[in-house]
Amino acid sequence: MFKVREESLQHLEIAEYLIKNIRSGTFGVNEKIPSENELCRQFQVNRHTVRQAIARMTNLGWVTPLQGKGCYVNSLTRPIQYVLSSKTRFSENMENNGLKHKSKLLDWKKERPTEEERVNLELSEDEMVYRLEILRYVDEKPISITTTVMPDKEVPFLEAYLNEFKSLYSILLEHYQFRPIRFRSTFQASLPMLRDSELLEIPESIPIVQIESVMNHPSGSPIEYSVARIRGDMHKCLVEF
Q: Which residue intervals define the domain HTH gntR-type in the entry (predicted)?
């Protein structure tokens, strides 16, 4: 039993060895990593184990295999530091980092809230909400998808301002004269659903950071409930108190 378990971990050992050497610069960007034969000899394993390691490296975005030529090291995106505080805004975060950014409204609906949304927004069962799905980009790369839910009574006729969508908070400031304040956020690491992986342009094996948040109106009542799914390979979070 122990031997089987040990063998099942060998491809992870090889992948970690390769990642360590890429990070240290031993294998540079656009350089070829050791061949399957070389790795088989070095680690005393079969070709299947080496291919598992390379598949893992490929899925994680570290290398790109070229048929008949081997695997080459990719240029990896440096994680973007995202400051999370009571008044966090995506656009301000990116501007403070000197990064080009944009937001795209994928879809919106006006309908009854789910039970979870109703509880978090402290709504009655007969109230309506706006539900927006927003895809955000940094330097032309998709970084996050956020589903945002707001009570209809707090943002009446919101659809009138969505035709040329650029920023939700800009709409709120300009047309409703308020800016949501973060009340609480819950973090969870997970793997993306199929649609999210396609929109974020990542394999399903790349982890995401899911942030579930409740924002309050300046008066103190809940005004926004959101669930953001952020690429784990492009994001690191700084929480300010």
A: 8-76
